[in-house]
Amino acid sequence: MTGEFVIARNPEDGSTLPYLLRIPLGPEGVVLKARETWPRTGKVYCHRAVGWPTNPEIVESTPMRSCVRRGASIDLVLDRGRENRSQFVFTVVRGTREAIFWQTARTAKQARPGVSLPTARAQALADLPIVVDSHERYAWNFSHQQVTTTRRALAAGDYAVEGDDGAVVAAVERKSLQDLVATLTSGKMRYLLADLARLPRAAVVVEDRYSKVFGLEYVRPAVVADALAECHARFPQVPIMFCETRALAQEWTYRFLRPGVDVPLPGRGVARGRGRRRRAGPRRPTGARHATDPRRDPHVGPRQRFRHLGPRPGAGGGHRGFRTAWGAAGVGSTGRPLDSVHNPPARRWWIEWVGGQPSP
Q1: What residue segments make up the domains of the chain, in order of their start?
Q2: Which end of the chain is more exposed for a tag (fewer CB within 10 A), N or C?
Q3: Cα 199 to chain centroid, rounded
């Protein structure tokens, strides 16, 4: 058994785990079936294989620096510059079934963002058709969302929705932090944003935090931060969103692409949101003039108009004075004016009592 980490094709037909991994640990080694050749975007599920095939189709063979088993995990360090440290974790699910997960330090941290994704549909849409670019290597599967994906070549963006005429109405470009830095420093970001700016709605989603920009080792963080600020200034219609993890970036993309599709509701046409219906009729004025002068407020009755002025001078206090004032002004017992407009004596007395001009 050589000290190499070997990846080969799985000879089983129709298997959902297309790769075989051979870990040189022990006399026979550990042979696992895996979905991917490296945990780049998330944890990779593995399953034990019966044995190593006689004439396998080798995909990759890499020398190792160390391979140590520590408790329920195997720490693997490969002899190469990138993608060299990983870990196989052996656990038991539902009490009996063994489960093996292949992870790195980055994917293990992304798997614990501290939040749970919502399960509600985007604006009551039963199914959102999303077009995935055929050049996307590690495409999102939208397993937590109500989405139907179709792979096809896109002129701009990695994920898009189309209108009734087949034209793209919204698109999202997915970037990891390393890919974003490479695109910014090479000058390709400007052309990418220029293509996205031609669409009605577009955005760039980064599967990491903005704070990680200032922890870069091989590129000056100030250069990347300045390039991001320049992109925001030149293309304000194409936002660059940092969504911390791959799962949160996928959720944000699902919510962003949803408004590009109109949802007709039965008997109501296109859904435009819900709101509380306002009662018909004129609105009550809220200006300072009506607050200080009740005589000009059409929503204040005659009793309230007279009450704030007090009783008629010489008519006594209390309710008796008010009744005298109402009767002299031509107001009945119900509070309605008898004829304050067409009764000149009552109107003239009202003007003298108030000491002002007749209200229109």
Answers
A1: 4-109, 122-262, 310-360
A2: C
A3: 20
Tokens at 267, concatenated: 């008997």
Residues 79 and 2: their CA atoms lie apart, in Å, by: 14
Distance CA 355, CA 309 (A): 11
Cα 84 to Cα 300: distance, rounded to the nearest angstrom:
80
Q: Do 118 and 247 touch, CB atoms closer than 8 A?
A: no
Question: What order of strands is seen across the sheet that includes strand 128-133?
Answer: 147-152, 128-133, 159-162, 168-175, 201-206, 240-242
Token pair 């520590």 is at which residue? Answer: 70
Instruction: Domain 122-262: give its CATH code.
Output: 3.40.50.10130
Distance CA 283, CA 64 (A): 78
Beta bridge partners of 60: 7
Task: Give the residue among 311, 310, 309, 291 at the shortest CA–CA distance from 299.
Answer: 291
Nearest to 228 by CA among 259, 258, 189: 189
CB 20 within 8 A of CB 32: yes
Angle, helices 318-328 vs 344-354, to 10°: value is: 130
Q: How far apart are CA 76 and CA 70, in angstroms?
A: 11
Contacts of 119 (CB under 8 A, 6+ apart): 144
Residues linked to residue 69 through DSSP beta bridges, in sequence order: 74
Buried/exposed 113-144: b ≥16 CB within 10 Å, e otherwise: eeeeeeeeebeebeebebbbbeeeeebbebee
One DSSP character per residue, 3-70 reads SEEEEEE--STT-S--EEEEE--SSS-EEEEESSSS-SSS-EEEEE-S---SS--EEEEEEEEEEEEE
pLDDT tens per residue, range 340-359: 444 555 555 555 555 555 44
Q: Which residues of the chain have pLDDT under 70?
A: 1-2, 108-126, 260-360
CA angle in degrees (0–180, nearest 5) for 282-287-288: 150
Q: Pairing state of beta strands 264-265 and 269-270?
A: antiparallel
Evaluate whether 34 touches 48 at the Cβ level (below 8 Å): no
Q: What is the pLDDT of residue 75?
A: 92
